[in-house]
Amino acid sequence: SKSEQSSKRRERFREYMRKLNPTAPARATIELGLVVEDLHGSLFKTLAARADLDPGSQQLLVGGIGSGKTTELLMAEQWLEQQGRTLSVYVDVSSETDLSGLNSGALLAGFGLHLSGAFSSKGLEDSIGTNEKRALRAARGQISEFAFGKTNSVWVPEYVYDPDPPEDYGDPNDYEQPGHYVTQTVPGKLKPPFPALQRDIQAIREPLEMVINAVQASSLDVVVIFDGLDRLISPDRFWAVVYQDFRALRRMGVAVLASAPLSVLYGEGRSISEHFDRIHTILTLSSDPEKNDYLKSVLSHRGGTDLLGADEVELTCGFSGGVLRDLITLARDAGEAAYIEGSDRILSRHVNSAAKHLGESYRRGLGPEQLKILRRLHKERSFDVASGPNIELLVTGRVLEYSATDFRVHPALGRLISKPDRDE
Length: 424
Fold this sequence. Notes:
The protein is α/β, with parallel strands linked by helices. Helix 11 (310-320) crosses helix 12 (324-341). The longest helix is centred in the first third of the chain and has 19 residues, at 130-148.
C-alpha cells in the first residue's frame, strides 16, 4: 500500500539522517562505530602514546573547526583507558565556562571538579582510610569554592571618631566593639561571565595536589584533555592559560592534551613550540577527485552511499572542501532536500542546494574588505597568513589550509563570491 511504501521510505531516510548527523556528540558517534580511525593516520594513538610514556608531557592539537579534533581527543582518552594504568579526565572547556572571559585558573578549576568526580565514580576512595577521605572532602570543597565562588560574612567595626571618650565610659576592653556584618562575595572561576581576575594559582594548587596524589597512590597516572579551546578566535586568552594553568599542571606531573585555535600558529612574538612537547596539526583533507578517498570512506562508513550515487558522492566531497563536519552536513542536508521533493535517491540538484545553503552560512557577516581578500585568494591564490584579518578568515573556516603554502577559499563559499553582488 502507499502508506507502507511511505513508511518504509521514511525509515530509510531516518536511518540515513541518524548516521549523518554533524551535531551528534562525538563520543556517541565513536561508540556506534561510525568513525574512520585511520583518517588522520591514527593520530589519536600518537597523542595517547606520548601521554602514556611521558607523564607530565604537554601536547597541542591544532586544526580548523570541524576537522575532527574532538574525535581524535576522545579516541586518545579511550586508548589510554584501555591500557588500565591511567585516569583520563576529559574537559570540554566551552561547555564549562564563557570562553570570552577565559582567564588563568579556569582550566585548573574545571580539571579539579572533573578529577574529583572521577576519583569517586571509579571507586578509588575504597582503598583509603577515614582521615584521607576527610582530607579529600575538604580539598573538594576548596576546589568547588575556587570554581564557583563563595560568600563570607565579614565583621566591620564601627569606628568612634571622638578621640576623648567621656569619664564614665569605663575600660574600653570591657565592652564589645560596636559594628556589623557585611556579606562579601568571592567570584568563582567558572561562573559565567566572570571578570579577568588576578588571583594566585596557589589557591587551588594545594587541594588539587592532594587529589592527584591520592590517584597516583593507586598506581595511576593522571591525564587531562582540554577540548573546546579551538573556538578562541584571539590567541590572547589561550596564552593566558598557557602561562598559568598549563605551567601549574606540568609542575604537578599531569599530562595535558589540548585543542587550540589555528591563530596560535601564526601569532607574532611567541613560539608555541617552546611551551609544548609536541604540536600536532590537522590539515584539511584534500577534496580533489583523485585524492578524496578518505572523504569517500567517511560517507561509505556512515551509510551515505545508501542514498548517494557515485557522482553525488564526488560532488559532496568537492563542495565540502575536505572539512569533515561540512561533508556530513552537506550529505545530510541533501538527504533532507531529496526527502522533501519525494525522490527515493539523492540527486545532484539536491547536493547543489545543500552546498548553496552552506556557502550562504559562510558568506553571512562578511564585510567588503573580507570579500576583497577572499576574491583575491580565489583568483590569485595569494594569502598573507600573518595578517590579522586573514587569520580570522582561516580560524572561521572560510579559508582552508591544505599545506604550509596552499590556502584556498572554501568551495561552497567560493561559488558565491566569484563576482560582486548588487548590494556591493
